[in-house]
Amino acid sequence: MEEKKDEKKFTTISIPTPLAEKIKKRIKGTGFTSLSSYATYVLREIIAGTEEETEEAFSKEDEEKVKERLRALGYLD
Amino acid sequence: MPIPHGGKLITRQIKKQPTDLKEYPQIEINTNLAEDIINISTGVFSPLEGFLTKNNLENVVAQKRLENDTPWTIPILLDFEKNNIKEGDTILLTNKEIGLHALLDIEELYNYNKKTLAQSVYKTQDINHPGVANIQNMKNHLLGGKINLINNKPRQFDEYNLTPKETRLLFKEKGWREIVAFQTRNPPHIGHEYVQKTALTFVDGIFINPIIGKKKTGDFKDEVILSSYETLMKYYYLKERSVMSILRTSMKYAGPREAIHHAIMRKNFGCTHFIVGRDHAGVGNYYGPYDAHEIFSEFPDLGIIPIFFRSFSRCTKCGSVVNDKICPHDQKYHINFSGKKIRELLRNGEIPPEDMMRKEVAETILKYKKPFVE
Fold first, then answer.
1. pTM of the entire structure?
2. Domains of chain B
């Protein structure tokens, strides 16, 4: 297993300098080691909140079959 | 209910069995790998559709994420001894013990470094660590690619075994929006009940999800764990607020990384919260007692909320079960819920004190002549 070069896995984005300065001040003494790690954290949090299920789990017919099994096993009345 | 991890609940099951399985090169795999295949095919390991390819493995090792940035901490790998199979082939994976047949489309055949893998996943290369020992025993090459489960034979405890599709529908039918998952490998004592009910107070239902499978000598047998929980739930839980089903997967003892993996599986089952205790999935002294709590701060996008419990005990001053956040009394008033002590009493045929274990639960355990793995 080779260590992949980090630069292949990261990209650069631009944010206003005053905002960058505010963030740098804010992350002092926290677990964030850099502006990038903070930005990554915040963006992941935001993106996760907007994610949607890409496909319905199953059809109506499948649903009935599952319900039948759940009833048979006593999980549903 | 949370969306499945990665956005889609994976199903990798062939509805119509191929006519001639003999045409495929065949590899017999161990039961742990066979269970990984079932967990992939039923969506427990969503979004995985197969065994990790090299880029994904490297990402999981270095970043604790798949190549597409989805959190993933435990590598799901298929090791094999190099022979004449090659990338692009489809092979038949079999396991006699559980009668499994599955097809693997080999996307990649690659080498890996056992030391790097052990160090990153287990934070150690000490072969006394059971996970490291497992890696050492793995074959020298890996196969990556998507799998398709053909079949597996019925097994003991199938009546307790629900897939993520089934639990998701079950929770929906029960009208639960917020569900807390509790993982266990032991019969419940009063401390467990306290943790579960404390968490349940703030959500709609609890999903008790014992890990079933290979155990070590001295552990409680699977049937004992299940029947002891059935008893506890019968006498002390509301039926409309609690569900138990099993999870067949091997413990890796990867501490913090495994805590994330455990949370992801429960998210796929449809849970919104996951209880993480002290030294979750730990072994020996390889991890700090709260490493498995701290790692969650690396994953703002995990999609399931951890509920952290630190140590809890019975306080003779308070007269109740307490934890270190709510009890001001000195340690001398605290009685710990010692699993070892409870096991000792049960081994001697004695019922533990009622402030350690429910009498009905203890009686259920003692109905078994041999409740422990020998």
1. 0.93
2. 5-151 (3.10.400.10), 159-250+311-366 (3.40.50.620)
